[in-house]
Amino acid sequence: MRSMKSTLLVLSAFLLIAFPVFASDSAYITQAGSDDSATISQISGWDPNTITVMQDIWSSSEYANVTQSGSGNHSATAYQNGIYDDATILQTGESDIALIQQNNGVVDNTATITQDMSSHGEYASLIQNGYFGNASIYQSGTGDTAGITQDTGSHSENATINQNGCFYNSAFIYQNGSYDNAEITQDITSNSEFASIIQSGTSNTGFIIQSGSYDNAGITQGGAGNNALIIQVYGGSNIATVGQNGDNNNAAIEQYYSHNKANITQNGNNNSITVDQSGYNANANITQTGNNNIATVIQY
Predict the structure, then answer these.
(1) Is the dihedral of CA 76, 82, 207, 296 positive or negative?
(2) What are the Cα distances from residue 185, in Å, to 15, 132, 168, 227?
(3) Is residue 176 part of a domain?
(4) Which of 108, 139, 165 is the last residue of a domain?
(5) Domain containing 233 — which CATH number?
(6) Among candidate residues 165, 198, 225, the one where a domain is terminated
(7) Contact (Cβ atoms closer than 8 angstroms) between residue 154 and residue 181
């Protein structure tokens, strides 16, 4: 612990000496626990960068690594109050903000936020209050917003958001269960897309892929072993929603081109719905209640 404190003092002194011309740069570190580690690197241009790392009284064997470079108003914050946590933030664009927070009683969570050299004006947030969670956000576009919350009581949840060179997209994942998996990808051609996945229960899986403009997609699942997929590509202004409650249900919506609407609702067990909309202005609304139902809708 003494050597770690000495290392942090040397690091702080290095930051002050190595970059005196950027007086507005700042780094703040507080550590109280055992076997903690913090690594900070700032290489800024004209505007101030801010880094805050706090691993406080309940911390043990935690690690936080923050790297910021380029000319821009970077801001990175990592709070870790649990044990065996791991946090990494990398920002190389301009005007980016990133937050990782892993709170009291958290065990063995892993969180990563990456905003690469082509990103600008991005915002990312990760909050984990459960156990054995794994969450990552990757941003390389402009004006995108991403958030992941894996809430208190969750266990072994996995969440990923990829925003790849896109513009002004929003993506959010909330999970409060066990062994759930959620992934949102907003691809390089996407613009002003919105996607959300909310899952509670056990072993649910939700995937959303968007590469159009002004699309809206949402998945909400509760129960066990449910699977949902939404794909929106080639067009824009599509709306797709999936709501499933029960066990072992499957739902898939594929929307190509523009102005299509699809809504799936399933309550029960072992149900399946597939919707394929490959044209313009199609509308599908399917509800299944009970067990072992199957529905397929194809609209051109």
Answers:
(1) negative
(2) 37, 23, 14, 17
(3) no
(4) 165
(5) 2.160.10.10
(6) 165
(7) no
Q: Which two tokens stand for residue 247?
A: 């066990």
Total domains, the chain: 2
Residue 24 has pLDDT above 60, yes or no: no
Summarize pLDDT for 81-93 with one digit per residue, the tens. 766 667 777 777 6
Range of the domain at 150: 1-165
Share of the chain above pLDDT 90, in %: 50
Pairing of strands 250-256, 227-233: parallel
Note the pLDDT of residue 8: 34
SS3 49: coil
**210-233: b or e for each residue (b if 16 or more CB lie within 10 Å)?**
bbbbbbbbbbbbbbbbbbbbbbbb
Q: Which residue has tokens 């969180």?
A: 111
Residues in the chain: 300
**Cross-strand pairs, 60:** 34, 83
Asked if residue 171 belongs to a domain, the reply is no
